[in-house]
Amino acid sequence: MSSLPPSLPAKPAAHRGPAPVFASAFPLRPARVHEVCGAGATAFAALTCARARAGALIWIRETWMRDQLNPLGLADFFDPSRLILARAPDAVDALAVAEEALRDSAVALVLLEVTRPLDLREGRRLQLAAKTGGSTGLCLIPEGMGSNAAETRWRVQPHWAAPPEGRGAAPRSDSTLLRWQLIKNKSGTLGAWDVCWNRTTYRLDVVSPAAE
Amino acid sequence: MSAGTGRRIASMWFPRLPSDRVLRATPLEGPFALTLREGNTERIHCLNPAAEAAGLARGMGLADARAFCPALMTDPARPDREARFLEVLRRWAMRYCPWVGTDGADGLVLDVTGSAHLMGGEEAMLDDMATRAARSGLTLRAGLADTRGAAWALAHHARGATARAAPGETAQALAPLPVTALRLDPAEIAGLERLGLRTVGALEAAARAPLARRFGPGLLVRLDQAMGRQGEAVSPAGEAPHYATRLTLPEPIGLEADVMEGTRRLLERLCEKLDHQETGARTLCLTLRRVDRDSRQVELRLAAPMRDPVRILPLFRRGLEEVDAGYGIDQMRLEATLVEPLPARQLSPRATGGDRARVEDLITRIGTRIGLENVQRFRPADSHIPERAFQVVPAAFAGPEAGPEMGPEMGAEAEPHTANRAGAWAAPRPRPLRLFPPEPIAGHGPRPPVPLRWRRMSLTPVRVTGPERIAPEWWFDLPGWRRGLRDYWTVDTREGRRLWLFHTPQDPAWFVEGEFA
What are phi and psi of B53, to 5 degrees? Predict the structure, then answer.
């Protein structure tokens, strides 16, 4: 299906003793709905697509949104031909489409851009649909508008870091360092990592565990 | 046909079909004609008896006709609609026999062998044709004979509006008719006139060999066809397959489960039909007629042509849930309004296609809610303009593989599919994940502004990469590109945001067009 190499296990953060293991959190737990907020949410979503199992990817947006996804940018992460875009006229339809898609096991990943806070009932319905279909869901939410039903919530901020010094260290000219903060986790501990996507090898590098 | 029963052919000629068609819709008194443009002049295409009485004729120039008859009313002729009207008449004529073909632009030919008695005999049938045509405002001349040629001759040249030659009396019936009744070329007719052979009888009596030498075989073929010495087929037009089924119920139903069951029965019959024709339905329309004569329609647009009732039925559920059954539904009609060829496919254990079919079903289900055109896919396009480097196409009409618009190139390449696809999406430089309509920012000079103020944020560029110059495609007039060249810069900011800026040197201004991450 995909032209990408199979997922590589991310390097565990080995520098600090009791820090949570990145691998336990990131390839998002399947058959659950997760949330991501912050300025780097799109990149997080693209990375999730890159790590999704074979199958259709559905990205649900509302019709009025002016900005658009750029498949040429997404191509650095995964093959944009796999992506199915659904443009819903309003938030209710977007949720209904998301529920329908999550319940279908043919779909590997459902991405939903949420513009208003989801209440517990809506969040729970998505969660149940994901459980039925075995698909993973990811809601891109505005800051602070998460639903209590989410399995994990991430805050992702792009983060400037000076290029690494020393010989042999390739300057990170092609990708942004992202700070991933796990700010909600229903079954595990929270954590924070600095993550960098290598677009030539399609590899996710955990640069260093970020200080809390 | 069989040797035992002689063939009987009827020919129906509508001499004023074009003008009758128009006058049926808008009745007019007085002279009326339809005009058709031929080369540089408007000529009369068809006219009513009043116009003919005023001295007008077909083929006459419109200017001359107006001089003859100042009261003439005209309309432009519509040959396409005339052809469609003739097709309607052809279907109507199937009430007389099942074997009806069209004959030229204004005639029908019916093989009424063995079916005339159903109308009470041949005379009665001809009378019935004449009455019905007159009642619907059509001029009709009909002929009935043993051969197609003779029937045509009688229809066009006999004295009355209807004429009939009894079985075996073709030669006697045709003898007094002029040679023009044999469907000959004008040159042949002129030649025969010059020889003094004015009637079919005279031609029949003349020696054949000199005629064949002089006029070639065509003339004698026509004569033999009319006399029945040479066969001529009546070729009925093939009926287009009709994909509709209906179910009439003795008692009205209203429960959703009952309606679903009715739909299932209709769907099975429809899919059998589709299966025979190797087609698949793309759009289905279910009409539910209620007891109060009102009807409700449920339209289902499918993401791929399908003819599997088990897969289609659940897709109807959402539409049916919203139907108000009122006092009950007593008739259901299911029609495939749009069909596409869907050849039978061999099932093999390797290419099950099950996953793809499920995705198509999902697209259909989503499409019933938000509209099938709102479920889309990306397709690569060949352009350097960032917003034109891809297309967004409805997913229902483009599979996950190469779409039809890029078929030739994709098919010609012998590379593996993966390499192919990576090439299709290759961009010369990193591209942002999101694009938005260009947002102007303050800035001067050819280097990105420091500090950079965007969306009420003050950002400090730390590293800028660029410029990447992109020229507009001058052969398109894109409103966004009226400022000319663009120099694109990738700007990393201390705050983390990574933006895609451009500067228009020909009309200096700065804009933000996209964001990485």
Answer: -65, -25
Collapse the DSSP code of B93 into the 3-class scheme (helix H, G, I; strand E, B; otherwise coil) and give the result: helix
**B476 at interface of A, judged by CB pairs closer than 8 A:** no
The predicted complex's ipTM stands at 0.82
DSSP letter for B397, please: G
Residues of A in contact with B390 (CB under 8 A): 70-72, 80
Average per-residue pLDDT for chain B: 85
Q: What is the pLDDT of residue A148?
A: 87
Question: Please, which residues have CB within 8 angstroms of residue B122's CB and are 6 or more apart in sequence?
Answer: B8, B112, B116, B144, B164
Question: Is A38 part of the contact surface with chain B (CB cutoff 8 Å)?
Answer: no
Residues B182-195: tens digit of each pLDDT = 888 888 899 898 98
Asked if CATH classification 3.30.70.20 holds for the domain at A25-153, the reply, yes or no, is: no
Q: Where are the domains of chain A?
A: 25-153
* A117/B contact by beta carbon, under 8 A: no
Instruction: Work out how many CB contacts closer than 8 A connect A with B.
Output: 156
Q: Which residue of B has its CA nearest to A4?
A: B418
Mean pLDDT is lowest, of A47-61, B145-159, B190-204, B408-422, for B408-422
Q: Does B498 sit within 8 Å of A80, measured CB to CB?
A: no
Can you tell me the mean pLDDT for A166-174?
Answer: 48
Structure tokens at B516: 């990485």
Query: Could you tell me if B334 and B284 are in contact, meaning their C-beta atoms sit under 8 angstroms apart?
Result: yes
